[in-house]
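Sample pair:
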Amino acid sequence: EEAIKDCTRALELDPKNFFAYSNRGWARSLKGDLEGAISDCTRAIDLNPNVPQPYDTRGSARLTQGEFEGASQDFTRMIELDPGSHDAHCHRAWAKINKGDYDGAIVDSTRAIEIDPKEGYGYFCRALGSEGKGDLEASLVQYTKAVELDPKEASYIRGRGSARMSKGDPQGAL
């Protein structure tokens, strides 16, 4: 709350302060004010369209709201500005999964894995893409790798269990 107040005060003093809009958007997203986050990040982007951070925050807010096309566009722009962003590739993969573009999700998550092979999120997204295509064997391999990298991430474990159940292995899902 204090960060939002500080950024608002900074904007009262300097209404074209890109960083204040970007930071306030991020703070609002953390508080669950997705519309406020989107609005602030859009204003930050209007002021300086060549900085990746507000695209990430706005894209994540859109993703949460189910605006998968807008989210995908934001993550695409973020990737153009920062091609080495693991998170942007994973987030765009997530948006593509939700749009039913499983092949595109696999491409993006594979790129994320190339960027940072020690991060489980890329493997998780690739597992979801493979699962969406009906390739349960590939998804199980990817879920297992994600779990190996981050054994305390419940969504990875749940995904692997679900894939095992779908393959007819309820014992393995336990």
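The mean pLDDT is 94.
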